[in-house]
Design brief:
The protein is mostly helical. The chain has a domain of about 50 residues. Helices cover about 60% and strands about 5% of the residues. It has 5 helices and 2 strands; from the N terminus they run ββααααα. A two-stranded antiparallel sheet has the order 1-2. A hairpin with a 2-residue loop joins strand 1 and strand 2. The radius of gyration is 39 Å and the shape is rod-shaped.
């Protein structure tokens, strides 16, 4: 213990065993904390800018011109009867054209493959 805290006439030596004054340690720690804080702030600003840019690029929904186009299949389904008689239901089933129901699936699959 005497080798670490040497006394000279009742005064304590202000140096630690490594030979560095104890006051210097707090100043060095303050610089490191300041640099760390600046790096964190810069990263948060960059992340915020990235999120803002990606959200603004996302479309909100389909175009109104697409929504307002007439659809013959939907119109034909809306004209079906409301009767619950078996003959009326059979006529509605026979009048319903389901042949082209999956015609757009091939187009969707091609578009998905093109994106990848």
């Amino acid at each position: 213990m005497d080798s670490i805290n040497q006394t000279n006439g009742g005064e304590v030596n202000s140096q630690n065993p490594m030979g560095v004054a104890s006051g210097m340690e707090s100043k060095e720690g303050g610089k490191g904390a300041m640099i760390g804080t600046i790096i964190i702030i810069v990263l948060l600003v960059v992340a915020g800018a990235y999120v803002y840019m990606t959200r603004s690029a996302v479309t909100t929904g389909p175009d109104e011109t697409i929504l307002n186009l007439p659809d013959t299949s939907t119109d034909a389904l809306n004209q079906q009867g409301t009767s619950d008689e078996i003959d009326a239901i059979q006529q509605d089933v026979n009048a319903t054209n389901l042949n082209g129901l999956d015609s757009d699936v091939g187009n969707i699959q091609n578009e998905l493959n093109a994106v990848q």
